[in-house]
Design brief:
It holds the Pfam family AzlD. Keywords: Membrane, Transmembrane, Transmembrane helix. The chain crosses the membrane at residues 37-54, 61-79, 85-101. It comes from Vibrio brasiliensis LMG 20546. Helices cover 74% and strands 0% of the residues. It has one domain (9-101). By secondary structure, the protein is an all-alpha fold.
């Protein structure tokens, strides 16, 4: 049953991507729908990282001793200032590791 669910989700994701990315298909979204879909990626990403950063132990943890929060703040600042994904990833991961080990 699990394998069937995985295969069904694979087919669904592939078809939904294929319909919009295949240039020979006449299916096009209007500009309003395209503008609306531009917000979906940041929304999904925020829904993934926000609980991890602010609630790592299933309770709100807003303090300077929260390594998740410090790592996220450093990563956001580095991404904003340098616009370098690799540097941001490496520095924030090393900082997070150092904070977790201490």
């Amino acid at each position: 049953m699990i394998m069937l669910s995985i295969l069904a989700m694979t087919v669904l994701v592939f078809l939904s991507r294929y319909l919009f990315l295949e240039p020979r298909l006449p299916l096009r979204l209007n500009p309003q729908a395209q503008r609306l879909l531009a917000y979906s990626s940041p929304s999904v990403l925020t829904a993934i990282w926000a609980p991890i950063v602010f609630m790592p132990d299933q309770e709100l943890w807003l303090s300077a001793s929260n390594p998740y929060l410090i790592g996220a703040l450093v990563a956001a600042l580095l991404a904003w200032k340098t616009k370098n994904v690799l540097l941001t990833t490496i520095v924030s991961m090393v900082l997070f590791l150092c904070l977790k080990l201490l």
